[in-house]
């Protein structure tokens, strides 16, 4: 989960851990079924916290599940920051992001299931991967790497294709996920205005060590 500055005293640490436990429980429920109708009692039991603790942190289940989605998307974005650091070419960042996402469907299935079920509703959010993708698209347009187009429109195409790739990885696990990611990345780069030969090469560049 995304990290922040540690609480300064025991009470605050316990309070923060209780909140994290509730968010973890909500993430697990979203990943398993996507069903947000689970009772607060069920959520509290899964989090191993007292029922009354819930309302010390959230006013409603809706608020909790939104916090769980935000937490997952921010973790997703932080993973990209960590794994793709040092790549300066916006086109290579896009391609590597697709390929990393395909691999994360296996290495981090809970996280990617949350993205699969709830990612579309957060496509234009100010957190998680969306703001990072928008930043890279703006850099690509400014540098001439990508065709001059409204970055938010390009984000629609990029985000929609990425979510489709995630859906494909879970719906068709028999397919070669790496190959699918490479092909989709190449198509997206061409859509963004990268010349065909260049898009083909960039989509197949060696990935950084993904662990």
From TrEMBL:
Residues 39-58 bind DNA. Residues 16-76 form the HTH tetR-type domain. InterPro entries: Homeodomain-like_sf, HTH-type_TetR-like_transc_reg, HTH_TetR, Tet_transcr_reg_TetR-rel_C_sf, TetR_C_40. It holds the Pfam family TetR_N. The keyword Magnesium does not apply. The keyword Transcription regulation applies. Keywords: DNA-binding, Transcription, Transcription regulation. Transmembrane segments: none annotated. It comes from the Bacteria. PANTHER family: HTH-TYPE TRANSCRIPTIONAL REGULATOR BETI, HTH-TYPE TRANSCRIPTIONAL REGULATOR RUTR. This is TetR/AcrR family transcriptional regulator.
């Amino acid at each position: 989960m995304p990290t922040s500055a540690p609480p300064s005293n025991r009470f605050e640490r316990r309070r923060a851990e209780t909140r994290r436990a509730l968010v973890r429980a909500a993430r697990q429920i979203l990943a398993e079924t996507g069903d947000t109708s689970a009772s607060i009692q069920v959520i509290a039991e899964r989090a191993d916290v007292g029922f009354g603790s819930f309302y010390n942190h959230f006013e409603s289940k809706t608020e909790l599940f939104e916090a769980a989605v935000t937490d997952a998307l921010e973790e997703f974005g932080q993973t990209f920051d960590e794994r793709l650091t040092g790549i300066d070419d916006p086109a290579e960042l896009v391609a590597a992001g697709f390929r990393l996402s395909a691999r994360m469907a296996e290495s981090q299935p809970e996280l990617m299931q949350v993205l699969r079920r709830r990612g579309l509703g957060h496509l234009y959010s100010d957190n998680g991967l969306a703001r990072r993708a928008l930043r890279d698209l703006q850099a690509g347009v400014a540098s001439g790497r990508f065709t001059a187009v409204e970055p938010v429109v390009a984000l629609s195409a990029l985000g929609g294709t990425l979510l489709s790739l995630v859906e494909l990885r879970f719906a068709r696990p028999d397919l070669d996920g790496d190959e699918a990611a490479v092909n989709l990345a190449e198509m997206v780069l061409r859509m963004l205005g990268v010349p065909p030969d260049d898009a083909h090469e960039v989509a197949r560049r060696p990935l950084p060590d993904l662990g």
